[in-house]
């Protein structure tokens, strides 16, 4: 049995050691700029290389460096501590790749500049704590010609400063000690990394300090965020704690206004040098709590209300906004404006004179719905000929099952379908943009019986949302719930989404072919059918090599080839950890299989009713597992559907 890798992966431009939070911002930029990259994680998940850093001089440790691709820039995102760690990592990588030269970037922390007696204005050349283990490892790397980016507080994505308040200011004493704060968004970190990669000669052998160029006052941020959190949670928890404490501290310390002066804050970072040398400026600065804005209704959104001003007129829109906090906005939107007309396709024809148009009576209030949507209204202009909208379709709407709503990205079936016609203009019921009629397709899909009050742009976005979920294989019309066909998706999807959809269909078909395996190299997307070694046509050699790049994989375990070990030795050594066993038990308890014999996927339910629809299209009861479309089965006696005779 061959136990060595036949060929190494191809070279990349950037190798990311530790694909964590930073990568969520970095990878899209690398793809956009056609920069070849590869990444590692400790588990090898999501097509990354499995790599775990340890100071180990053994041959086994060197093997994990050998499996990594050659690179021009090595980005280290995890902290190295103390002496020798930087030397060990860089030398091990270079030794595994024939001592080829590599540029090394280390992401560090600006915390090393927090020392007693520090000057007010701190630059990258200011004194720092050289006894800090991270600083020692960074100094070692700089001595080897590497570059260190000392980052201030990271935010963006899952990291939101407002969620830190209860931890950093749990008491008045803690709050009193809070002065300046420096931040940088993940997107600006990613832009900085790429700039250093492209201009490494400017960064070589130096330490750089990075912020978004703004010095924040902790008190000002906490004051704003506390009010916002209380508004969101509908309580006064922080009004009686952090907000109250800030007022007391301002009086005690004679602070006249927020933010405090630089002298009062102390430790202010001057980072102009980095941005000037690399020709950049941060684009995600000015962290703002926006506490002064009224709380946005989750269904409507502030943007949607502001867009209504184009239709409603500024005076009525401002009046509605004033009532926002009093819960009267829904009523205001339905009250009559002078000369206002509205078209409602979902109202019975006999109630709508003039071919479906109905004047909204003064004081008209619609019955409340679970997820109300704003009605679109407009002042009628006698100089504009407004065509009569099409007559309402007599067929009742088929509501989309609750479990399928995330698939489309919009709760369209729950909107009361009202369409505004202004000459050859139509207002989209999703984005509320008034657009030319040519921007609206005749039907959402070619079999749908409904006219489409949704613009092409929103239909395209709904497909984008579906492509990001597990429902891409079962995309449905947002009005009649019929499954969309290939030509419908081709008509409305963006080029990128349609190419992705095409590839998904191909991979979904290929996975059912015996002995088909996709290359596991993160830099290769090739796949092939490997020859069988038995009559059943489903057994093949454990070691398989990609015909395109030569990457070696194990056909039995679906992982990169375990060098130096047979499959039996790999199984014996790996075993199942307690965490894996616990995870398997949790999966068994929290999931149920799809009753479709050709599917059988394990499904979990996050909430809602007991009606479940699998991505294969099979609808079934969560409680007893009976498929709604199976006439030979009946729900169990303890099931709530039993007495319905389904």
Automatic annotation (TrEMBL):
This is RING-type domain-containing protein. SMART domains: IBR. Residues 424-646 form the RING-type domain. PROSITE patterns: TRIAD. One of its GO terms (molecular function) is zinc ion binding. The lineage of its organism: Eukaryota, Fungi, Dikarya, Ascomycota, Pezizomycotina. SUPFAM superfamilies: RING/U-box. It holds the Pfam family IBR. InterPro entries: IBR_dom, TRIAD_supradom, Znf_RING/FYVE/PHD. Keywords: Metal-binding, Repeat, Transferase, Ubl conjugation pathway, Zinc, Zinc-finger.
